[in-house]
Specification:
340 residues, alpha+beta, H-NOX domain, Arc Repressor Mutant, subunit A, 2 domains, four-stranded antiparallel beta sheet, three-stranded antiparallel beta sheet, 16 helices
């Protein structure tokens, strides 16, 4: 089974919120397999399932059904890391949401997807989790949708109310609670998880917008996610990186996401003396050491995250790249860090 990952900074603010309710946050994190303080290493990759478990366990131990909503309301946007700068400098809400969608893999890889779809005078920002994770993600989904509404209020004012909020799950708090947070009572047992905005909300300019700073921010994020609008090779690398955990990363699938054909993509890469297979191997090679360094994931999980169905295949590829096995590389890396 492929294991989606998330940066531990997704848990920033959770420990403080738990502590306010008199619960030991260290013990709570440990129960989900997280043996460090996220604030001390916010860049570390952890299993996305563990993040979801933290949210659900926190709600249970604090006896707070609206824990996800309380967390979203109380914490600032620091848990977004560099994505936070998009909110400050994007020209409008639509641009902010689309850029978040473009660079989501910097924060969470393989855990969920979003889409921004127009339906008449309405835009709907939807969240998609796979079927195995959705039943254990009610608190995370509620936090994420309220954070989306908070994002809109940065552009539209603190009193802005979305047109509608949709949850796939049934209500777990009172209508009064939901109305307090969202400004509207959500629609439950819906077919989607998402927030609907009137299209007029996307036309309101951000008075703090700065296209030059935004370009710099997205350039830095692009270096992390491997994405540049103008560069086919970078776009292919980014899509491969995003698709590896799903197991669906053939050249045909990547070409379709680029709204192109397999033949066209291969021809254009050949003009740059590149091949799809070469970019795939390059991406896997770079990501393999990142995963080995940033977390305590089992080697089998890293193999699956890189799109390998067998750990032995990953081991063979890694030894071809670096001359040692993944386990040996990890041990050597830890020894180097311990040396004064």
């Amino acid at each position: 089974m492929i294991e989606p990952l998330g940066r531990s900074r997704a848990l920033l603010g959770l420990t403080e919120t738990v502590a306010r309710h008199g619960v030991d946050s260290t013990a709570l994190l440990a129960r989900t397999g997280i043996d460090f303080n996220p604030a001390s290493d916010p860049e570390r990759w952890v299993p996305f399932r563990a993040i979801l478990a933290c949210y659900e366990l926190a709600a249970h131990q604090t006896q707070t059904p609206d824990f996800g909503l309380e967390l979203a309301q109380s914490r600032d946007f620091a848990f977004f890391g560099p994505l936070n700068l998009i909110l400050k400098y994007a020209p409008d809400l639509e641009t902010a949401l689309r850029e978040f969608q473009r660079f989501a893999s910097v924060q969470v890889s393989g855990g969920y997807e979003t889409s921004l779809e127009r339906d008449g005078d309405t835009f709907v920002y939807k969240f998609f989790l796979n079927d195995s994770m959705r039943p254990i993600s009610n608190q995370w989904v509620e936090e994420s949708l309220l954070t989306t509404v908070k994002t809109s209020r940065m552009f539209l004012g603190a009193d802005y109310k979305p047109k509608a909020v949709h949850f796939k799950h049934s209500a777990i708090s009172s209508p009064k609670k939901y109305a307090h947070y969202f400004g509207v009572v959500p629609k439950f047992d819906s077919e989607i998880d998402g927030v609907a905005f009137l299209s007029t909300a996307f036309k309101v300019p951000n008075r703090a917008q700065d296209p030059d700073v935004l370009a710099l921010v997205t350039s830095v994020l692009g270096a992390q996610a491997g994405w540049k609008r103008e560069d086919l090779a970078s776009n292919v690398r980014s899509l491969i990186r995003r698709s590896l955990p799903t197991g669906q990363f053939s050249v045909e699938i990547i070409a379709d996401q680029l709204r192109s054909s397999k033949r066209t993509v291969q021809r254009q890469l050949a003009q740059m003396n590149l091949t799809y297979g070469g970019l795939l191997e390059e991406t896997r090679r770079a990501l393999s050491t990142e995963l080995l360094e940033d977390g305590n994931l089992q080697l089998s999980s890293i193999a699956y995250h890189l799109g390998y169905r067998e750990q032995s295949t990953f081991n063979q590829a890694f030894k071809r790249w670096y001359g040692v096995t993944p386990g040996e590389w990890r041990r050597q890396s830890r020894l180097k860090k311990r040396r004064p």
